[in-house]
Task: inverse folding
């Protein structure tokens, strides 16, 4: 089964194909960490509200394939948040000692991520 990693960073969209789930997760983590290590965003002021870098999604790395639909949001301050879902994104809570990437791997390995609702 083939997997696809779609990376959105600003107006740029990159797509990477992988033959296995493990390879796709490796590509997703490598690309997302590279962006997270880059320059930080500045606060955005829209008169009635200010969006801090931690509230901004600087990049989104999405994993697709089979019944898997999950990914990582890289925030403007360099932090990352794992999520699952197709239309509605549900955050994946990291367990003790996990970062967002480990939480995503655990969640997908447990087979809990599905793109089709029952």
Result:
């Amino acid at each position: 089964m083939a997997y696809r990693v779609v990376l959105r960073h600003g107006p740029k969209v990159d797509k990477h194909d992988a033959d296995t789930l493990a390879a796709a997760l490796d590509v997703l983590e490598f690309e997302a960490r590279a962006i997270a290590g880059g320059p930080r965003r500045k606060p955005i002021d829209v008169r009635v509200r200010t969006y801090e870098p931690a509230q901004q999604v600087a990049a989104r790395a999405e994993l697709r394939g089979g019944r898997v639909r999950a990914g990582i949001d890289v925030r403007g301050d360099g932090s990352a948040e794992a999520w699952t879902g197709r239309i509605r994104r549900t955050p994946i809570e990291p367990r003790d000692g996990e970062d967002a990437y480990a939480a995503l791997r655990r969640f997908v390995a447990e087979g809990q991520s599905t793109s089709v609702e029952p």
Summary: The chain has a mean pLDDT of 88. The longest helix spans residues 21-36.
